[in-house]
Amino acid sequence: MTNQEWKERDLAVLWHPCTQMKDHEKLPMIPIKRGKGVWLEDFEGKQYLDAISSWWVNIFGHSNAHINAAVSQQMSELEHVLLAGFTHEPVIRLSEKLVEITPPALTRCFYTDNGSSAVEVALKMSFHYWLNKEKQDGTFSKKPKRTKFINLSNSYHGETLGALAVGDVSLYKETYEPLLMHPITVPSPDSYGREAGESEADYAIRQFAEMEKALEQHAGEVCAVIIEPLVQVAGNVRMYDPVYLKMLRKACDEHNVLFIADEVAVGFGRTGTLFACEQADISPDFLCLSKGITGGYLPLAVVLTTDTVYQLFYDDYENLTAFLHSHSYTGNALGCSAALATMELFEQRDVMQDNRVLAKHMADSVAELVDHPHISDVRQCGMIVAMEMVKDKANKSAYAWQERRGLKVYEHALANGVLLRPLGNVVYFMPPYVINEDEITLMAKVARDGIALATKT
Ligand SMILES: Cc1ncc(COP(=O)(O)O)c(C=O)c1O
Q1: Rg (alpha carbons) of the chain, rounded to whole number
Q2: pLDDT at position 410, please?
Q3: Distance 372 CA to ligand 1 centre (A)
Q4: Per the confidence metrics, is the pTM higher than 0.90?
Q5: Which atom of ligand 1 lies nearest, measured to the CA of 232?
Q6: What domain range includes position 119?
């Protein structure tokens, strides 16, 4: 079968995610036959370097021998069993490992099967926590006092209605606004907005004043603050200084509000540390993880929380404090075995140190873009690099979204064997950690040429 034949069969029956299907009247649809390392290969042998880890999930390359072996072995023993009343070895071993490697206050794992559903769990659990607390304190009334969440502008937490509501990317959210709850949104500490000469830390501290104000005004009605630590990836890959996380942890404690860290995108080493929260030396009350957890193999997500939270749900059944939330594939055994194999790969070599070398090479390979007349910012956080295309560098005025400049980069990159998928006008790299220096050089050249092309007129 040729690419064209697969494409026709696909377009006859599929509806693809995050896609205006009419675009495919002109845009190529790439059927992939196999993957190995950072490379994807179509049905006619053409290869594509996966510079964005297939939506930020792949960590140790496609068709990784170690993960393959672990999943095959698990498949011959047990593919899945419900997780209510039953358990299995991979989920126990994975939970022990996650408790060991995540920030110290996190001692309990609750599983779901995608990032959005992990966020839903954290939102529901934090709401329910306060109800249970009122029951415990004897102040419970039918009208809950805490029903609000504080989020950041430009944040993204997924597509299900709760997760969408606490996000702030209008492209995804605006249409569904009438269906959504309304968070208290405070300005992001994203460094792109800082004044000339202002440090990223100073800007984050300055922006924190609004968060402090929101907490002062609303603490009594707020369940939790939800944020993406260090990088708002879906929000145009904007980055901020860790000092903000430190201040937020302190303020949440002072105002008695829970702290949800959504590391669905940035967990498992993307920011240069295994978890982004480590850079501020903080433990959140909830940590949402997914994507890289299985090395990009299988859908699995987890919310880690503290013993304090867990204990408030632990009571006689009749008191109705239990968290009665479930998904059919919760804690799937194959997913957990892929995750355990991924954790083993982190232990087989010093991945964070090796990534520092790769990250430096990525920085060097796009350094010349700093002076590009239509690039306002080249930013990096660990293994994530972003380049923002603008109409006017002097005042950072954006290209109109209708011009779809990013799409031009996408098309150029595909024609040249690289999968880049810009977010709006932002071209970025977030490759698997098995990329080598030659591959980085190629990825960067294609990106630079694509940017030149897309910003020419
Ligand atoms: C920070 C963050 N949270 C949640 C999600 C949603 O995860 P999923 O796409 O698995 O539902 C994403 C997805 O990109 C994300 O970046």
Answers
A1: 22
A2: 98
A3: 31
A4: yes
A5: 1
A6: 69-348
